[in-house]
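Researcher: I need the complex structure. Ligand is NDP. Inputs:
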Amino acid sequence: MSEFPTFSLDGRLALVTGGTRGIGLAMARGLAHAGSDVAVLGRDPESGRLAVAEIERLGRRGVFVQADVTKEDQVVEAVERIEREVGPIDILVNNAGKNIRKPLTEYGADDWDDVLDTNLRGIFLVGREVIRRMAGRGRGKVINIASIFGGVGMPYQTAYAASKGGIVQLTKVWATEYASSGINVNCLAPAYIRTPMTAAWLEDPERLRDILSRTPAGRLGEPKDVMGAAVFLASDASDFIHGHVLYVDGGWLAQ
Ligand code: NDP
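Model: Output:
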């Protein structure tokens, strides 16, 4: 055994929820490049098929699992099926998420439920099912995808920021609960990344200027900017890191 850290994920299996596009797909590709097989979970089979093809192009096994993270029965069955048919999950990237941006006074209770169900209930359900298995094996890496809005506010992010703040807290709880079981639970928290979730929102030139003015790096993030942090938190190199929030934000929160 080397005294130096390794970032290799050879022989591992990762589950990436929402791994079919955007940041999730980039992380799935990054993990595959580092040596991991990857199961991607989402609702749309066509984007799932394309994601699997990208993983396989990197020489790793890719599997698409169709499930809605808000539905308990579908999550339980999906995790059970991956473990039975593909293998034990070593790495969980709890990434599936959504945003509805509106002023508070226009925010419907349905909007609130929709965002909280996906971003918080989904993370809880998938995390619970995977962590119970990791705990039985005494090892595992869990990466919950939060956001800078888990730490700071901005207009129109009522449910989203509440859900991401919840993810940061739930990460800290799971980290303390499972560190002694050999499981690392951490958060990865990006600022604005150019993906299907943000494309329309970033079309407004004034808004884009405002966002860039808050970003010391002077540019938006690209999905590939999140890859390295995901590989690090999934690798043995992060074995003593528990309950950390790793911001990938171009310096947004350094100000
Ligand atoms: P996208 O909208 O591009 O991708 C979202 C992914 O989540 C898709 O794969 C989608 O697949 C899946 N998904 C959504 N709802 C569900 C559901 N109910 N069940 C299963 N899968 C679901 O988003 P991003 O890539 O931009 O965001 C990914 C994560 O990163 C989110 O948690 C987001 O909050 C976070 N984030 C994004 C930032 C950004 O600027 N883009 C910044 C900070 C954090 P399908 O539709 O097939 O189900």
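Model: Summary of the prediction. The mean pLDDT is 98.
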